[in-house]
């Protein structure tokens, strides 16, 4: 009976170790982020990046893009002020990137308040046949803010006008005509 109990304890111990290793493996897998499915590139007049990607050579490679807009009429309507059209506001247009050849020109442009005539941001699918998914054209650009943290740079852009073009893909993989739309913040009109 004693030998059976010892064997049973050994088997339980082995099962616990195997179970612990399996759960540790599943935890580490769950914590491992998935690789990005898209690449993001930025082109600004007069500023050169280090991208070597086909069709985006010398563009600036971005690691993150976030932006938001609002409209003053939403606040007045919520307060019972009616539904009149308000002024569209670009709340933020924030880009993140790693240090590269564009870092110093971007830093200087932010300090000097340099006007940049045009810019374009393109989100591109990754894989064997990379294709643009979303293109954002900007005009009359100012670098409103520049922050540096270790090797990560965060840049905020302000601009007069934006045009977005989305390139949908059909189920067979072919591209449909783009859906486009934009806004001129200076004139407060749809473009």
From TrEMBL:
Bias (Polar residues) ranges: 176-191
SUPFAM superfamilies: Hcp1-like
Domain of life: Bacteria
Signal keyword on record: yes
Region (Disordered): 170-191
Keyword Ribosomal protein in annotation: no
Keywords: Signal
Signal peptide (residue range): 1-24
Pfam families per UniProt: T6SS_HCP (PF05638)
PANTHER family attached to this UniProt entry: CYTOPLASMIC PROTEIN-RELATED, UBIQUITIN-LIKE DOMAIN-CONTAINING PROTEIN
Protein name: Type VI secretion system tube protein Hcp
UniProt organism field: Cohnella herbarum
